[in-house]
Amino acid sequence: MKILYTTARFPYPPLRGDQLVPYFRIQHLARKHEITLLSFVEGPEEMAYVRHLEEHCVEVHTVPLPRWRSYASMPGGVLSSLPLQVVYYWSRTYQKKLLELVAKHKFDMIHTVLSRAANHTIGIEGTVKVCEMIDAISLTMKRRADTARWPAQGVWRMEAERMRRFEQRICQSFDGVVVVSEADRQELNAPNVTVVPVGADVSILPRSSPNGHKVVIFTGNFAYHPNQDAAIFLLNEIWPQLRQVLPEARLRIVGHSPGSSLRRVARRFPEVEVTGFVPDLRQHLLQADVAVAPIRIGGAGMHCKALEAMACGIPVVVSPLVTGIQGVPGKDFLVAGDVSEYVRAVRSVLEHPELATALSENGRRLVAEKYSWEKTTQRLELLYEELLYRRFPSTSHAHRN
Predict the structure, then answer these.
(1) Which of 12, 115, 298, 304 is the most exposed place for a label (fewest CB within 10 A)?
(2) How many CB atoms lie within 10 A of CB 123?
């Protein structure tokens, strides 16, 4: 199958969700299909990453999108009916390159990642199209508005409504829409929305037994506001109470772009380490005893951080907002909804090695069986086949190549 993959942010390094998901999807799809990638790059430094995608793609096409140019479009975006983040990523050059590629290659499938890039492919006709939204972004924005103060609250409410309308247009214009959880599917409420979870790398050997060092870890991209909010909530509310009952516990906050406010709060605790970017997150996970994801705002979907920890055999304690993991709470992972529940759950894991071992083994097994990148990408391929057959019932994709 010939697939055109279109993204707004270049899918390397896989630090953020909109980089990590397409990077691993392309890596696994390329084993059977011809992938052409079209993506923005924000500057010359990103061109050094192109080789990582050339290993998997037959062609890689990039379009420069300097930040100054995108920011310059924002004043006009205020008057637009489109969400500002969609306006930010609009480019006539990108659109021209897209049309050239579609005319030249006659793709079987166009796969667009997130609504940010969908404004370019939304009008393409004659080719089966999938938009991998990942989350229902309008839901994230509504929850952001609920926690914001005026005037930011008004901006987020406006953006949430614009995104809701744009997501409806995407559902009407694309053959298939992909999200990572049932809650996101229900939020979009369209018949062509399919749940295909994100994945995790299960190639690393899991930790064989609890470390016993009482190390708590929280991982993520902290340029993403819900992650930074969760980290500050962890430090201000959960950590002081946990330290009262477990004074020897230590905390590591690991991931890209921790903000100044997060670092400032963390400096109050000598036993807390904020690492910033690390080249191999898994090595830090393997040194931890329990991973937490105290998410309070954001979409309804699955968080890669939980799957990554479970793939490494680390027990996890997650927020009720992390709804996309189809496991059994209490068996495969623990769920905590408020400060006292987080303290109780983390303490249980750190003080009861038999519970930690059971969660470790069950969580790893769940990810290997349902959420490896190979398994989840196979589900995406089945969707491709179904949509192609629906559009061209008398001709298989094999005959169209």
Answers:
(1) 12
(2) 9
Is residue 308 within 8 Å of 201, Cβ to Cβ? yes
- The domain that contains 26 carries what CATH number? 3.40.50.2000
Asked if residues 173 and 121 have their Cβ atoms less than 8 Å apart, the reply is no
pLDDT tens, residue by residue, 55-97: 999 999 999 987 656 556 655 556 678 888 898 899 999 999 9
Domain count, the chain: 2
Domain span at residue 297? 215-370
**Would you say 259 and 184 are in contact if contact means Cβ atoms under 8 Å apart?**
no
Q: Is the CB of residue 251 less than 8 Å from the CB of residue 176?
A: no
Same domain, 180 and 99: yes
Distance, CA of 178 to CA of 196 (rounded, Å): 6
User: What pLDDT does residue 301 have?
Assistant: 52
Residue 311 sits in the same domain as residue 347: yes
DSSP state of 286: T
What is the tens place of the pLDDT at every residue in 313-338?
999 999 988 767 889 999 999 999 99
